[in-house]
């Protein structure tokens, strides 16, 4: 296929790379230099591969690549945004390396930086940034999973010796799935219920030595290997038990709370619940990073599948007698192009959440004023992490299938890509739970804006929701349609059929869905509670609605991020291509949920069919640009491995 | 969880096992006896695991388990249906064993049985049934994939010596992905273009010795290992090249065509195209078997996920202070129960296609009359294979995620289950291509029934499609609704709202969708052709419509098979449970495609919402039965492995 080169690929790469092009270039060069790890992943026994991954991580650390997020005074780069960009880009390569970096620098390092104070920073940061001190992040327990507030591990203050005593009361409270714990970490940040005297103060974090200088478990610490996993076998996940393990009073990471020598608990945050969520909030960077890594893993899969589909011929064209290339088939375009468009969309949504993270964490000393922004950030990070990781699972699988049997051979990248990314939907917050977190935030926001409404606004609001309720109950869709004839919808009358490629119209659709889902969810929850139903039962019954509302919200902010980016790109073929991708991402999303839009009278049948036709048409327009659009991801050629492309034997 | 035992589980197992309960019991007992293979799969190096899989296959063969499909005179069981039942049941265990069995007995053995004649049967069947002669099935080539008719390998008749000379002209024509070829097979059934004199007669099959007695490649044969794969690493897939490899004239499998000593080509089937598809049609058993294996692999995943979700507690019930079990969450029910219901539905659809296969192949000598039935069988086998294998991929993945991090540990079965089944959507016919085959058959049927219509029927038919076309074009949904008021729909007036749980209504919906999609597809194809568009372009543009029509057809026959089965079950709690599963399978299918039903005015918005509410309600009703419903699958406990269930620490 000699498609015309209509796009300026380097310029498109620059648009994607954004502010941190240099950081990304450094990581790409490190990836290419360590490309052998992809072969090691397939061929080395597990123990050797774990050591190899550690070596690569330490060699990359030596280039400064993993230290961007730490203060300059400890040898870091002092730039949170750069740290996210580096991490994301690393995900074009082996993902055990990525996760090992995340555990060591993001979780372990991040906890010391964010939950600790100057003495901890001085004691640990320089060594950990340079990979001399290896640590792990011991939060999750076997019996509690995502419910961190219910952890069983205890840290009891012994005023006699001025120490905390850590204990694992039972097997449900063993620390589980802890990366770096089975083999490499000498230290752990351990989350435990802090008990002073008779009183429990909730979950706090402690620095605990878990291995001695010879690498043996420290006294009272038991360590077990979690064993082989579906993927990420270069990361040594382990389980930890503590039996009367004593640590100094100063080993409590005391940014938000401390215990005085004589056993008095003090905290700048009175409310225990708020304190807990403030501590957890500092960990938002991990979610932002995982979301970005997922998007970049998707790019690798798409780059391989698109190139394969341009080379691989299958079945005859009855006209010409030659076999057609796969990418000329409508169904193949349908399989790959909406995912390609969505990958661009999520890339820009990721750029936005990373920028928000950077802004929120750039001055870690400033509190209070930043708190609201941080809450919004947490919600955004949860939402983009969930959508990004679901997207990666789906995209990598679809790309594997689109490469047929060739995609099933381990020599090609899909094996490792799908196995390694599979757990992304589960770790750093299970996606289903993260989406509930998003929804919870939205309901609070909703209540806030409701309270802020003036009298007229309030009446209008209630009236409009009441009308909708009636419409839905009576199925009088025709009433809604008649209303449309006279009531302006989004500034238009119903006679002016809006252009499907009008971005404002697309945004209007997504916004309408979000608001409608939230309003109706609020009503359902309220009426359940009002009727005296057990709140757990109300929640269980509405859970799909809760998650649907969160989805709708995140979809809308993903589209907004793409539109914001579009507005910054100069007119020309590159912008036209990005607009095409933006349309395809938005409309394929509307198409996928057209049942809902039809059900709620927001799309007519003919309109819904027009959306499907437009998605097909956009695919045909995208066809000649496809190779350049994946080239623009700037994936080092070594990361694609070319066996499968040769296999296609074009 | 002490749920009441409302079901008679042994009776339900008997309903599922059907006619071949004894065969299934034999396989279950063989599985339990070889349960160690699940551990070997995780721990042995690849080469050793391959040998271990071969041992297990041979030990199972010794019990008669793998020979049911062969004539009794050669030591087989003479019962095709039993052979499918045995194969399916085997899929509760390690899937490399399953695929190795499929290659040796189904593909290699099946080709000799179906394409060969008595001399071939006498020469090979006894040895191959008992695992003394190992063979492979060399059809697929690297450059052609699913397009078998375009194979490049040639078999040229040399009248001087009375031999065929096999050649691989280029790397696109190398045989690829051939199971049993890399290590174990001494013989191969090779598909090649038969050339006699100057004339090519299309693809035929030959028995070729590929290894000598010492296991070295035979003269002129080159063999390469395909290397590690995502899964199924107990199967030795390889590539084959032939360089002037000579085989006797009688090594042509000559049931449908032969070459005389003096080089004259003869065949009972004149038309070359028809001959080709007749030969391929004999391979339908492989598809039936793979579909059944996929359904059974899904059962294993569901049994683990359901039991886990009944033990695992997560987050507090604000009322009681205890954590709730996962399966009490509405979202968790939504994740698992429609898949459970669908697994039952596909089980019965599989039972039906296996029975059709049995009927069609029970007397392999009879031709002609059975051909129509065989064509219908091929279509049904293609459709259920595609739906079953897609279902397995989706179900296993969803179950893995529903078990969170525990599901990611290799010690539990999801790792192997998902990796091994992943290629099921691709092999024995890529699903996308199979669905096109289904659609093609339907369009032919459609044309047939059109021609059979009488004058009045014809007028009615054209008028009704014309009305629909107008409706769709003008989006006058309200017109349709008004029409409904006066026109009986399925024997009711619009005022009588049919019960969603009325099976006839569900079937009516699925039938209406199928007919509508077919009629509109026929019109689109016709009008594209009439307009002079390149047929390849017409096809490419309609490809999603083609596959949608096939989907709708298979969905309908799946529901019919379930309803047929229901009619045979005695009234009581078991039948009530099966009816519940049938409703849930049908309605969750309607819900998933409600966009289409709404778009085409076949469901109103309120009705579509009622479907969603009913799916949730059915999930709540299913909740107390869930454990018994997976127990009824009769999976040997050893196949579930209990590590994950212990991990849940309830």
UniProtKB/TrEMBL annotation, chains A, B:
Keywords on record? FAD, Fatty acid metabolism, Flavoprotein, Lipid metabolism, Oxidoreductase, Peroxisome
Question: Which residues does the UniProt record annotate as the domain Acyl-CoA dehydrogenase/oxidase N-terminal?
Answer: 21-131
Superkingdom in the source lineage: Bacteria
Question: Ranges for the Acyl-CoA oxidase C-alpha1 domain?
Answer: 281-443
What cofactors does the UniProt entry give for this protein? FAD
Task: Write one Gene Ontology MF term.
Answer: FAD binding
GO biological process per UniProt: fatty acid beta-oxidation using acyl-CoA oxidase; lipid homeostasis
| Enzyme Commission designation | 1.3.3.6
Question: Where is each Acyl-CoA oxidase/dehydrogenase middle domain found?
Answer: 136-245
Q: What class of enzyme is it?
A: oxidoreductase
Ranges for the Acyl-CoA oxidase C-terminal domain?
Answer: 506-641
Assigned protein family: Belongs to the acyl-CoA oxidase family.
Q: Tell me what this protein is called.
A: acyl-CoA oxidase
The organism encoding this protein is: Nocardioides panacis
